[in-house]
Amino acid sequence: MFLDLSTATFCQLSIFATLKKLMKNVLIIIIFAANIFCPRLCLGDEPNISYANEMPKISGDAKHALASVLATANVSGCIITSTTRTSTQQAKAMYDFKIAYGVAAARKLYGSEGNKVVDVYVAQTKANRDETAILAAMEAEIKEVLPAAIKNNHLMHVDRPDYDVFDVSLNSIPSDKRGAFIAAANASGLFHRILGPNEGEQSCYHFEFKKSQ
Ligand SMILES: [Zn+2]
After folding, report:
1. Which residues surround ligand 1, an ion (CB under 5 A)?
2. Residue 136 has pLDDT above 70, yes or no
3. Which of these CATH numbers, 3.90.120, 3.30.1490, 3.30.980, 2.60.40, describes 46-84+160-210?
4. How far is the CA of 72 from the centre of ligand 1 (A)?
5. What percentage of the chain carries pLDDT values higher than 90?
6. C-alpha span between 145 and 116 (Å, rounded)
7. Is the per-residue pLDDT at 153 higher than 70?
8. What separation in Å is there between the alpha carbon of 44 and the centre of ligand 1?
9. pTM (predicted TM-score)
10. Cα 194 to chain center, whole Å?
């Protein structure tokens, strides 16, 4: 009984290959376990914050604050549906909100200055004006009430260079994590104001982040 050199080498190679395979499996198991028990801490996987369409991006500080809330609530990411708006975009957002949820819901959301814009919508609709005319009248009213709205912290999406104001899609947060998400956001103390779906908003969470001076 003897082993020649080629057999020995073959045995060594085969042991080496088995060990390599084993190590690979152990590594896969470790990564898998790390993913289950501490997905962000172990693997540095930042929450994925994306935008529903083309819009001005929020600041790095605001994004960081939102990411920390998502991480605390163990939510892997979210979609931002709106940030800063021009008066034209604000008129369209308010118009669409009223079409989707009605005038009464709108009156709960936008504050006293916004209610004047809602009044314009109601009057224009009663007068059977078309969408273009209604939007133009609403935009003119927004420009009219904006100085008062800025003073009273209303209509926050329009012309607020001191704030990052953004909406997070309700549907982008898994339903079983929405409670943890809003609790983490409120507990963080990082935001000037947060409005959830039970506070006037319907399909989003509204966030206001005060930029550092
Ligand atoms: Zn909002």
Report:
1. 167, 206
2. yes
3. 3.30.980
4. 22
5. 71
6. 8
7. yes
8. 30
9. 0.74
10. 12
